[in-house]
Amino acid sequence: MKQHYPFVNPPLPYAYDALEPFIDEETMRLHHDAHLQTYVDHLNIIIKQYPALHNWTLEQLIKWNDNLPVEIQDSVRNNAGGVYNHILYFSRLAPPETAVWPSGEFLLLLERRFGGFQQFKEAFKKAAMSVFGSGYAFLVANRDGLLEIVTTANQDNPLEIGYYPILVLDVWEHAYYLKHHNKRDGYIDDWFNRLSF
């Protein structure tokens, strides 16, 4: 997330069909090559006009959005958030042969905070189901370094409130509509089957 202008859409670290049957190839192509690319393109168009921002990273554009020229704050929040959120989303998915499950210290943190991995999954799914309309569910480290589950609307990002995102679930309908239609709960279950830490 340390890249700066001109921003790029990194290639997926796996094949488009590598997450089948849980996340379908067509959705992956549209989600990565169309949706994420659009956010990258729009962010570059905005930032190009402001040379003083050319060295700002995605994180800085999100965290310090209030310091940007007022006329671009909303569009940068939407597009920088769209780039960051999607890159994090795709980076935390993997085919089963390369997936990494929580272990060691991180697993202990999940157990201390949520009571166990299964309890974390249940709490995370409940949060993701609670998002009205479009948005995200995040696992974050809060300002005290403790794990929390937070949700955001649209392309908002927890960096804006001083939290550090660890993983994210995209609950915009474009992430699941081709396979699951309006059944978000089935998509969330499938996402957990391809989640990698």
TrEMBL record:
GO terms for cellular component: cytoplasm. It comes from the Bacteria. Gene3D superfamilies: Fe,Mn superoxide dismutase (SOD) domain, Iron/manganese superoxide dismutase, C-terminal domain. InterPro entries: Mn/Fe_SOD, Mn/Fe_SOD_BS, Mn/Fe_SOD_C, Mn/Fe_SOD_N, Mn/Fe_SOD_N_sf, SOD_C_sf. SUPFAM superfamilies: Fe,Mn superoxide dismutase (SOD), C-terminal domain (SSF54719), Fe,Mn superoxide dismutase (SOD), N-terminal domain (SSF46609). One of its GO terms (molecular function) is superoxide dismutase activity. Mn(2+) binds at residues 31, 86, 170, 174. Its EC number is 1.15.1.1. Keywords: Metal-binding, Oxidoreductase. Residues 103-195 form the Manganese/iron superoxide dismutase C-terminal domain. It catalyses: 2 superoxide + 2 H(+) = H2O2 + O2. Destroys radicals which are normally produced within the cells and which are toxic to biological systems. Belongs to the iron/manganese superoxide dismutase family. This is Superoxide dismutase. It comes from Anaerotruncus colihominis.
